[in-house]
Amino acid sequence: MGGAAHWWLEVVLRLVVILGFFLVVPLLVGQMEHKAMAHMQGRLGPMEAGGFHGWAQLIADGVKFAQKEAVVPADADRTVFQLAPAVALLPYLVALVVVPIGPGTQVGVALDLGLFFVLAVMGVGVLGTLMGGWASANKYSLLGGIRTAAQLMAYELPMLLSAASVGMAAGTLSLSGIVDKWQWWWLPWQLIGAFVFFVSGLAELQRPPFDMPVADSEIIFGAYTEYTGLRFAFFLLAEYAGIVLLCLLTTVLFLGGWHGPFSAHLGWLWTVLKTLVLSFVVIWLRVSYPRLREDQLMRFAWTALIPLALAQLAITGVVRVL
Amino acid sequence: MTSELDRSAAVEKGAVEKSAQEKSAADPAAGRGFPGAGLVKGLATTFKTMTRPAHTVQYPDQPPELPPRTRGVIALVEENCTVCMLCARECPDWCIYIDSHKETVPAPPGGGRDRTRNVLDRFAIDFSLCMYCGICIEVCPFDALEWSPEFEYAEFDIKDLLHEKDRLREWFFTVPAPVALDPGAEEPKEIAAAQKAADKQLAAQKAAEIVALADTGTDGEAEGEG
After folding, report:
1. Rounded to whole angstroms, how far apart are CA atoms A18 and A274?
2. How large is the greatest C-alpha to C-alpha distance in chain A, in angstroms?
3. What count of CB pairs under 8 Å joins A to B?
4. How many domains, chain A?
5. What residue numbers bound the domain in which A275 lies?
């Protein structure tokens, strides 16, 4: 009886920690985006909220979103429309459960098929956008949704191929197993794969320069056009949660996760640090590059990323056999 | 236009040619050296900008640095105004209101006759109409109007933008001193004229001294030595 209670307590504790991570780190990345983007553009960004350099800006934003009216358009498919933000947001939370932060037991659930699970669940997140785009009864939303679908189709393949390359290299699909096997020379070995994975992940999250589905200058805000209030905030949160998950996965798969000095004690810190640095790169790319046109977007996926991913698979295979 | 044609051509041609086309298309973007140099340059630019101080000013906390001769608001020196009405008549918007009455100044004790002068009762500028052309300031013959850099006089009601002479006088105290001239600039007319007069006076004085010396002759010299 006591043993059973202990087991429950541990599960609850793990889930609470993961939920906390899920709620805090995306906001951290969002705040970093506010400030880093502002400074990269010669501005200061938020300076008032919270007193010190606008640290509470996103909390203020959240309060504002909560106060707003949640409008559902008259012609919208109500149930699907209302469900979409949750479908967009929750998969990232679920995926986070199996990603190891540190060595040993510092993972929500050590799943043997972790890599497979994470990639499958991440793909579901995009469905939320598709649902929103379809259910909004708005031509811009629909266009955005269709663009999202096209982008998902194009970029899911290189992402899976490059992730498969790491799985092949490690000989396991368990995320903890992959990090355990990781050596520093995997960095040059899997360099192409890392690039392909990161870039196609960005495209799947519709982050600039791959933000054609939400291109505000042509289709308002794509699938999110009709959303207001908390539902809209959920979509935004999903975007940042997606950034965190993508950076976390890139860290775990390609940058050696918790490996680093004092990794026995501070492994989780290394993972978080690498994740935050990658998140900064995501923001940096957003500020530096203009949006790719739809045809450029497709061409880049099919003529650049997929051949590169296949080349990485070949390289991985050859080195493994040797 | 040409790039569009290139693209459509590339779609039709084979894969080998397509990659060659892409390379040639990428070359001008890269500018010099290896492909992707432009991408790296973009990243470097944004990163450099991030490390430098921001261009913006935290306005309400930090007053802006306004250039001299800022056209903020029009200020009035009531004493200089002779109610000549030039400003009111030149104003393209008719936004200056002037009321006055005539007053008789009695003759001075030495004799003469009584004189009349204009006394300013009301001087108001409607800043909801004013277009800040500055013609009133240009035409004022007695420098009764000046530009002040003060700009924080927004109101909640447009009617409150009609400001009377006491408010215009307050703004006069915010008029900065005239800006220093550019190096090598021509002297202001007043200073040039005064300098000319002073030079003339000095020359006359010197000439008078020389004449005096010549007149007294050796006696004068002896006196001077003694």
Report:
1. 18
2. 63
3. 38
4. 1
5. 70-321
Contacts of A44 in chain B (CB under 8 A): 54, 56, 58
Query: Which of B50, B52, B59 to mutate against chain A (most A CBs within 10 Å)?
Result: B50
Q: Which of A42, A47, A295 sits opposite B49 (nearest CB)?
A: A42
**Is A19 among the domain residues?**
no
Closest-CA distance, A291 to chain B, in angstroms, reads 13
The residue ranges of chain A whose pLDDT is under 70 are: 1-4, 105-106, 108
Assess if residue A207 is contained within a domain: yes
Helix then strand count (H, E) for chain B reads: 7, 5
Q: Is residue A39 part of a domain?
A: no
Residue A261 lies in a domain: yes
- Cis before B60 (ω within 30): no
Query: Taking CB atoms and an 8 Å cutoff, what residues of chain A touch B42?
Result: 288-289
Q: Are A44 and B58 inside 8 Å of each other by CB?
A: yes
Are A43 and B18 inside 8 Å of each other by CB?
A: no
A34 neighbors A45 (Cβ within 8 angstroms): yes
What is the structure's pLDDT at B99?
A: 93
pLDDT of residue B96: 93
Nearest 5 degrees, angle CA A56-CA A61-CA A62? 100
Are B55 and A36 a contacting pair at CB < 8 A?
no
Query: DSSP letter string over A59-79?
Result: HHHHHHHHHS-----TTS-HH
Contact assessment for residue A175 and residue A98, using Cβ atoms and an 8 Å cutoff: yes
Percent of the residues in chain B that have a pLDDT greater than 70, as a whole number: 81
Of A39, A285, A295, the CB nearest to B50: A39
**From A43, A284, A295, residue closest to B56, measured CB to CB:** A43
Model confidence over A23-59: pLDDT tens digits? 888 888 999 999 999 999 988 888 888 888 888 888 8
Lowest mean pLDDT among A133-142, A308-317, B81-90, B216-225: B216-225
pLDDT in tens, A83-118: 999 998 899 888 888 888 877 766 767 778 888 888
Contact B46 A47 (CB under 8 A): no
Helix or strand holding residue B203 (H, E): helix B189-225
**Which letter, b or e, does each residue of A173-189 get, where b requires 16 or more Cβ atoms within 10 Å of its Cβ?**
bbbbbbbbebeeebeeb
**Any chain B CB within 8 A of the CB of A42?**
yes
